[in-house]
Specification:
- The protein is 27% helix and 4% strand.
- A two-stranded antiparallel ribbon has the order 1-2.
- The relative contact order is 0.17.
- It is mainly α.
């Protein structure tokens, strides 16, 4: 039995299943220490509790550990947020 479907393995044969895995890796440098970034509230809470990385609107990946109220808003996140809200009006 011949097939082009990678998930179909002929009986008695050997097949290969390729799975893609996406990982987020916190950035070591950058401005995540200087700004508060926009992330979904549910993701932020989960990250604060579990210590998992989050991805901000601007693309910054980091593990939040500080009070965002103590820092100015990331200008890139703010611009993206405002452009998203203008499109929804």
């Amino acid at each position: 039995m011949e097939t082009d479907d990678p998930e179909v393995v002929p009986s008695g044969g050997v097949g290969t299943l390729i799975e893609e895995e996406t990982r987020t890796v916190p950035t070591d440098g950058g401005d995540h220490e200087r700004f508060s970034h926009f992330v979904p509230k549910d993701k932020l809470m989960e990250a604060m509790i579990n210590g998992t990385p989050v991805i901000a609107l601007c693309g910054k990946v980091w593990v939040p550990t500080r009070d965002p109220e103590k820092f100015p808003v990331c200008p890139d996140c703010k611009d993206i947020w405002e452009s998203l809200n203008k499109d929804g009006e």
